[in-house]
Amino acid sequence: MNQRLVSTAAVVAVLSAAYTLPASAQAKPDVLVKQRQSAMVLQGKYFYGHLRPVAQGKLPYDAALVARNVAFLDALSRMPWDGFAPSTKGIKSQAAPAVFGEPAKFKEAADRFQAEVTRLGEVTRKGDESAIRAQILAVNKTCGACHDDFRERK
Question: pTM of the entire structure?
């Protein structure tokens, strides 16, 4: 009987912990903002720090380095979007009010960016330098369009 009581108590403890897990796993709004900003900073590092200058002819083309940075950008392009939760609306950031006022338009812009980055990965795997440069500039247009509509200027 004592062993049955211990077993029942253990099951109740595990179920209680599992029940409260979703509430404790939710990120705080300020943490979400920091995470999305971090992803965006890293996107900038690989895109504006290397890929765009390569497309503009300001840096030499190195196929291996371009492929590496495109792979990083591809992963990073998927990261920041859940950090724009409605709970983050009041947290100080460069997100324009339109992010929260026009969520469908914002999602469309984010999806467009991800699609162009995905296309950049496909083009990069084919190895055509001029096509890669052109696709980098296509990605650049999506960045600029999103920043124009959804980013506050300093």
Answer: 0.80
